[in-house]
Amino acid sequence: MRMQTDRVIAKTVQSLNKHLPRERKSLCDLLSEERPSIQSKDGSTHRIRRDELEMIAELVPKDRQKKIYLPILIEICPEFGRGAAKIRGSMYCLLVMELLEKEWKGEDEIIIYRPDVSRLRKSLPTASQYAFFMTTE
Questions:
Q1: Which of 126, 124, 127, 86 minimizes the C-alpha distance to 107?
Q2: In whole angstroms, what is the distance from residue 2 CA to residue 8 CA?
Q3: H or E segment at 37?
Q4: Alpha-carbon distance 62 to 82, whole Å?
Q5: Which of 4, 13, 62, 77 is deepest in the core (most CB within 10 A)?
Q6: 68 CB contacts (<8 Å, ≥6 apart)?
Q7: pLDDT at residue 113, as a whole number
Q8: How many CB atoms lie within 10 A of CB 31?
Q9: Is the pLDDT of residue 3 over 80?
């Protein structure tokens, strides 16, 4: 019964994530596109606004713009409490903390909560996306 339930949950999570990109693109590549966009797993095109890309470019040193892949994934993490989300990767953590006007302490992974998630999504509505993951016990 447990395996069957896990499969149902896994399928549900998979359907929640069909909006995620098949492949993310670097900030540098997106800035060079006339109409910056990525392809989603469901085959749709997700446009990323140029003003958001330019805002990110102002915060990221030019030599690191090829290492920032967008959209930024905001991983929903119920295990850290209601409204908690995780950002992974030191460059992404630095970028998010800069946008939130908070001190970055060199972490490779940060947990942010609902008010900061809302601020991040308001700042970068097309350059960030929610991602859902299933944790196994």
A1: 86
A2: 10
A3: strand 37-39
A4: 36
A5: 77
A6: 26, 27, 56, 60, 91, 92, 95
A7: 95
A8: 16
A9: no
Phi and psi based region of residue 12 (left: phi greater than 0; alpha: psi -120 to 50; beta: remaining): alpha
Query: In this structure, are residues 78 and 131 in contact, taking their beta carbons and an 8 Å threshold?
Result: no
Q: Which pTM value belongs to this model?
A: 0.84
> Does residue 71 have a cis bond before it (omega within 30 degrees)?
yes
CA distance 95 to 68: 9
With a CB cutoff of 8 Å and minimum separation 6, the contacts of 22 are 38, 39, 40, 41
CA distances from 6 to 1, 13, 19 (A): 9, 10, 22
Q: What percent of the chain has pLDDT over 90?
A: 67
Which amino acid does the sequence have at 14? Q
Residues 73-124 have pLDDT tens digits of 999 888 888 889 999 999 999 999 999 999 999 999 999 999 999 999 999 9
Number of Cβ within a 10 Å radius of residue 88: 14
CA separation, residue 92 to residues 35, 36, 85 (Å) = 23, 19, 13
